[in-house]
């Protein structure tokens, strides 16, 4: 089977996951793409599809998007990314990924087994969440967990959480795609794979979003925590692999 069959199938699944939960498309897409594409091509295609996924999510949830929730995350992300870029050669990425995995899996497991952790922090805490996301994206390419944890502990309802993540992720994905284009990572081959995946990824988001509307808030939050445990375990194994 050629990449032009396998890659669209992968993004059908990835789009479904993000449409259902509001995040996680790259988490499932990147390990699968690694079996089909070289890492640079996989990252470039995943970033372009991430723009489409989050744009579709923003359009679906536009009535729910609250800029007061999104802006602190976005503003904090910029200096975090700059700082991460400056110190990337001085940090041990494996240690950071290991600790991040422990934090993520531990927090989510506690929320599943004991009780959900709801803090309802002041929105300005979003600056720290955004900064951490930008820093980790620049240093270990794993920026999602901090902002996802921040959104989860705020106690938001399903659509609040998904709309805030989509509003933030569309900005970071767009900047990432622009950077890949400028640096030459986005080649004509990458663009062809992206075009081949466009309809499948949109179909996946549609199906996931439609199913999410039939899921209760309580079940949705449990699904998010299970996914966070999985993400944490993946980070731990990647750090020691």
Note the main attributes of this structure.
241 residues, globular, mainly alpha, single chain, 0% strand
- Helix share, percent: over 70%
The low-pLDDT segments are none
Class of secondary structure makeup: mainly alpha
**Number of separate helices:** 10
Instruction: Give the N-to-C terminal Cα separation.
Output: 28 Å
Q: Name the average pLDDT.
A: 87
Written as H for each helix and E for each strand, in order along the chain, the element string is: HHHHHHHHHH
The largest sheet is: none
How many distinct beta strands?
0
Shape: globular
Beta-strand percentage? under 5%
User: C-alpha Rg, in Å?
Assistant: 17 Å
Describe this structure in words.
The protein is an all-alpha fold and 241 residues long. The protein is 80% helix and 0% strand. It is built from ten helices and no strands. Helix 2 (25-33) packs antiparallel against helix 3, helix 4 (67-87) runs parallel beside helix 6 (125-140) and helix 4 runs parallel beside helix 8 (158-183). It is globular. The relative contact order is 0.21. The model has no long low-confidence stretch (mean pLDDT 87).
